[in-house]
């Protein structure tokens, strides 16, 4: 049983169906998860100064609770949550001073046994592409799907330890397992502009539109990502385009959910999350 960390954005923005689709997919594929009995915001941004310890506390609480509830790992869906939780975990296991300071703040110990997992990682390592293919009920043959990784999913590579930061391929392999054609295009690992969307919209719009147009030029019929902020920026940058110029932006769960027929297979099941 994996512990499940929804995170603030995924839980707050249910209209994107990220959580609903992900939990249904996991159920169809036989992966058991249970939401942590208590969690709080991970902080959204990993602190970049070496003498900041308070911003680590909320993530360590989630990591420690995963240990206490004897879960096999901590699963999250959001690339930002994954980035913060994974890097905080890495620091707690490799920075003695940080570990001492955080444990002093919490007045408790963290053993460091929790493994932080992203949905994509679970699909790759615990399910496998072959198993996904065998569960396909509605092949996506004819679809040309571009995948967008962005920054937080991949870097810093030595700490994230998930994919080749320059040439990732896990989402493309999933797309192939669904029967669709993965579209390879420039900029799929470039930054979308991130939080500049809140104060320098022209910066994020420029960065995101470059990505969208490259994917569209390469023949994509849709663009998928695993990051709520990336999804927002990739959609928002197209607001001035004519409808025929726009490229649909979805979470990576959308084509998987459709291909597995997860809506029909899980419609009578109780929800996994509280």
Automatic annotation (TrEMBL):
It comes from the Bacteria. Transmembrane segments: none annotated. GO terms for molecular function: oxidoreductase activity. Keywords: Oxidoreductase. Residues 3-86, 146-234 form the Cysteine-rich domain. The keyword Glycoprotein does not apply. It holds the Pfam family CCG. This is CoB--CoM heterodisulfide reductase iron-sulfur subunit B family protein.
